[in-house]
Design a protein that fits this description.
With 487 residues, this protein is α+β, with helices and mostly antiparallel strands. It has a domain at 103-332 and 352-371 and 400-486: Cytochrome p450 (Orthogonal Bundle), CATH 1.10.630.10. The chain is built from 18 helices and eleven strands. It has helices at residues 3-25, 50-61, 80-89, 101-107, 117-133, 139-157, 167-182, 192-208, 211-218, 221-225, 229-253, 263-273, 284-297, 300-315, 317-327, 347-356, 388-392, 435-452; strands at residues 64-69, 72-78, 96-97, 361-366, 369-371, 374-376, 382-387, 453-457, 469-471, 474-476, 482-486. The strands form four sheets. Strands 1-2-7-4-3 form a five-stranded mixed sheet. It has a two-stranded antiparallel ribbon with strand order 5-6. The N and C termini lie far apart (78 Å). Its cofactor is heme. GO terms for molecular function: heme binding; iron ion binding; oxidoreductase activity, acting on paired donors, with incorporation or reduction of molecular oxygen, reduced flavin or flavoprotein as one donor, and incorporation of one atom of oxygen.
């Protein structure tokens, strides 16, 4: 049979399958824009800013509607009421993590972020317990973060007040905090292994935010047969995993189960205790992927928010002065820190986190459920796309939501106001494991920087663009430079 005939037959089969899948879902899924065969709704979306496309479509189809990414349907949840009902009121039913083919291929269903079922529940429970044992939310963790803040200040002094891009330095600090928990030791900022890990992590974050990965998610067959950025993602992931496995072997050789030194020791101890368990959640493979999840999550989102926070403070020097005056009172002894406490809230820092929203969309999965009077049924589990941006930028809760205004988190008396719409760390069963640590780091790193430096923009603050750069499912601050002038 001629090759053209074979290609035509294959294309016809794909069209028939696509049409069958889309027609079989009608009546079971919420309405949405009409999908094209095979392509779905991908031509109706801006793959560089899916969040904005979702927001525009919600004005036509309401807070719950269906999009097809290729031949795969996703139910979109837009707005506070829909997101709250799903992730909080029906948290257990919506606790599954939707599939991202590239990440699934790398993680093999292990770890704490993209795993599901019993592996996810057990790994998450263990990770939370272990992080708390190592001080998350306690004074001992505060001391650890403050020590890293001192190192950060010394590194910033080396810039000699000259213009610099803060991206790398602001990534090193939170990365070292999580490394001290995982590997026991922090790295010197010039350590070559550290530099390599950071570069691979940053590159993978850029790749995940690219339209190419969105295309791979819509058409998973591309992963196996087409060259592209996903190949580099796999290479970086394998190198980072290799380093974790090497550290694991070192820990196994010197393990004292009665005196665990770090997260790896705790996991290895649990492995020994559960070695007769046939279900085997505690394996070296799961350990490696869990460590990589904590390493990535403990570095990327916090450093991105720090970067965005400094940009907003550069843009609004009058607010910076207020933060310094209120939260950094010790001008003589520069390294005496404002003490962190979970009940201490900083409106300006909360507003920076609110605007940063580095993960505007979250992918989950659910089965057989009545949601907002719509019965949704899928034997394989229907994916949902949760728009956190629609909650964080709700103009009813936050007037002029795109404007930097710490007043969004103040009540009429000028006191801090907690908002249920503040879902920067997600919410429900899948809320960020390290939320407490991230909040502490943001408070201590930013106040320590403001305590020791005057921030100077290289351009007129009025000309600074603070509009986040959205790449696919990720949001990052635009590139900028600034000067750290010692005070």
């Amino acid at each position: 049979m001629d090759l053209p005939v074979v290609l035509v037959l294959c294309l016809c089969c794909l069209l028939l399958i696509s049409l069958w899948k889309q027609s079989s879902g009608k009546g079971k899924l919420p309405p949405g824009p009409t999908p094209l065969p095979i392509l779905g709704n991908i031509l109706q979306l801006d793959v560089k800013d899916i969040s904005k496309s979702v927001s525009n479509l919600s004005k036509v189809y309401g807070p719950v509607f269906t999009l097809y990414f290729g031949m795969n349907p996703l139910v979109v949840l837009h707005g506070y009421e829909a997101v709250k009902e799903a992730l909080i009121d029906l948290g257990e039913e919506f606790s599954g993590r939707g599939s991202c083919p590239v990440i699934q291929r790398a993680s093999k269903g292990y770890g704490v972020i993209f795993s599901n079922g019993k592996i996810w529940k057990e790994t998450r429970r263990f990770s939370l317990m272990t992080l708390r044992d190592f001080g998350m939310g306690k004074r001992s963790m505060e001391d650890r973060v403050q020590q890293e803040a001192c190192c950060l200040v010394e590194e910033l002094r080396k810039t000699d007040g000259l213009p610099c891009d803060p991206t790398f330095i602001l990534g090193c600090a939170p990365c070292n905090v999580i490394c001290s928990i995982i590997f026991q030791n922090r790295f010197d900022y010039k350590d070559q292994i550290f530099l390599d890990l950071m570069e691979r992590l940053n590159e993978n974050a850029r790749i995940l935010g690219s339209p190419w990965i969105q295309l791979c998610s819509s058409f998973p067959a591309l992963i196996d047969y087409v060259p592209g950025k996903h190949k580099k993602f796999f290479e970086n992931y394998a190198c980072m995993k290799s380093y974790v496995l090497e550290k694991t072997r070192e820990h196994q050789a010197s393990l004292d189960m009665n005196n665990p030194r770090d997260f790896i020791d705790c996991f290895l101890t649990k492995m020994e205790q559960e070695k007769h368990n046939q279900e085997l959640e505690y394996t070296v493979e799961n350990l490696a992927h869990t460590v990589l999840d904590l390493f990535a999550a403990g570095t990327e989102t916090t450093s991105t928010t720090l970067r965005y926070g400094l940009l907003l403070l550069l843009k609004h020097p009058e607010i910076t002065a207020g933060v310094v005056r209120y939260h950094c009172p010790n001008v003589i002894s520069r390294m005496v820190h404002k003490v962190w406490h979970p009940r201490i809230h900083v409106p300006s820092i909360s507003e920076a986190v609110h605007l940063a929203a580095s993960l505007p969309l979250v992918l989950n999965v659910f089965f057989f459920i009545t949601f907002q009077f719509i019965f949704i049924c899928s034997f394989q589990g229907t994916g949902i796309l949760t728009s956190l941006t629609s909650v964080l930028y709700d103009d009813k809760e936050f007037p002029n939501p795109e404007v930097f205004d710490p007043g969004h988190f103040l009540d009429e008396s000028g006191n801090f106001r907690k908002s249920d719409h503040f879902m920067a760390f997600s919410t429900g069963k899948r809320i960020c494991v390290g939320e407490g640590l991230a909040r502490m780091e943001l408070f201590l790193f930013l106040t320590t920087i403001l305590q020791n430096f005057t921030l100077k923009s290289v351009v007129d603050p009025k000309d600074l663009d603070t509009t986040p750069v959205v790449n696919g499912l990720l949001s990052v601050p635009p590139f900028y430079q600034l000067c750290f002038i010692p005070v």
